[in-house]
Write a structure and sequence with these properties.
With 260 residues, this protein is α/β, with parallel strands linked by helices. The chain has 2 domains: 59 residues, Winged helix-like DNA-binding domain superfamily/Winged helix DNA-binding domain (Arc Repressor Mutant, subunit A, Orthogonal Bundle), CATH 1.10.10; 183 residues, Rossmann fold, CATH 3.40.50. Helix 5 packs across helix 6 and helix 8 packs parallel to helix 9. The protein starts with 11 loop residues before the first helix and ends with a strand. It comes from Pseudarthrobacter phenanthrenivorans. InterPro entries: Carb_Metab_HTH_regulators (IPR050313), DeoR-like_C (IPR014036), DeoR_HTH (IPR001034), NagB/RpiA_transferase-like (IPR037171), WH-like_DNA-bd_sf (IPR036388), WH_DNA-bd_sf (IPR036390). This is Lactose phosphotransferase system repressor. GO terms for molecular function: DNA-binding transcription factor activity.
Length: 260
């Protein structure tokens, strides 16, 4: 007779937590409690069980997936930053996408969340240079995925450079979802100038350009100026922006979507 203690099988709720983490990377304790209509204590008990089994990592405010799925440590950490806000933005963006649309997903953690929220029934086309988004697309078997090649930048987990720009220029999509690092002085800003040409090429390849940014990006500068407000059709964020930004967006005829 074996003396080893057998592990109890996972409960349906614990399996659902694992499935959601595989899609989202991080989930807050509050979000899980609301989803399952249980207490925070019950959620923490479930996540402790999963953590002891080595299936998840319990972190401040919630639980995260074990590093993997095409993400490096830096990218995985950025996925967890303002995760609830990114999720709301992503869901608002997905509601704008038709089931057969051709879309462009820029690199970044908010656009990655859009890929995570696309339903398995999506039959459109996804054009992207984001390695984590490509990894997610492997699960979207009904969709068509077009990967833009180039030089892989490890910190952004995305392909970049002249090859990426050339590939993007030969394609056309209905909507491009673009990530930024800051919004200030009637312009969008990014951290690395080397990524500007790729982002501009993606924007030029779409009928509609949607910038995605949580409230943390408002009134914030970054190293390189990407484009003026009027180069974009829609801004999707998770909270009402400061008055000066809202006024400038209206003057530039940019539609503002505040995700619930």
């Amino acid at each position: 007779m074996s003396t080893a203690r057998e592990e109890a099988p996972l409960t349906p709720r614990q399996r659902t937590i694992l499935d959601e983490l595989g899609r989202r990377g991080f989930i807050s304790t509050t979000d899980l409690a609301e989803t399952f209509a249980v207490s925070d204590m019950t959620v923490r008990r479930d996540t402790r069980v999963l953590s002891k089994l080595g299936l998840v990592r319990v972190v401040h405010g919630g639980v995260s997936a074990i590093q993997g799925h095409g993400q490096n440590a830096d990218f995985a950490a950025r996925v967890r930053e303002d995760a609830d806000g990114k999720l709301r933005v992503a869901r608002a963006c997905v509601s704008m996408i038709g089931e057969r649309d051709a879309i462009i997903l820029d690199a970044g953690t908010t656009t990655y969340q859009i890929a995570q929220e696309l339903p398995s029934t999506f039959t459109g086309t996804i054009i992207t240079h984001s390695a984590p988004a490509i990894q997610r697309c492997l699960q979207l078997t009904a969709a068509r995925t077009i990967c833009l090649g180039g030089e892989l930048l490890l910190d952004s987990q995305a392909f970049n450079g002249p090859m990426t720009v050339t590939a993007a220029a030969g394609l056309r999509a209905k909507t491009a979802f673009i990530g930024v690092s800051g919004i200030h002085d009637e312009a969008y800003y990014i951290e690395r100038d080397v990524e500007r040409a790729t982002k501009i090429a993606l924007m030029n390849s779409a009928e509609q350009v949607v910038v995605v940014a949580t409230h943390q990006k408002m009134l914030r500068y970054a190293l390189a100026r990407l484009a003026a407000f009027d180069a974009v059709d829609v801004l999707v964020t998770d909270a009402p922006p400061p008055r000066e930004i809202e006024t400038a967006l209206r003057a530039a005829d940019v539609k503002l979507v505040v995700a619930a």
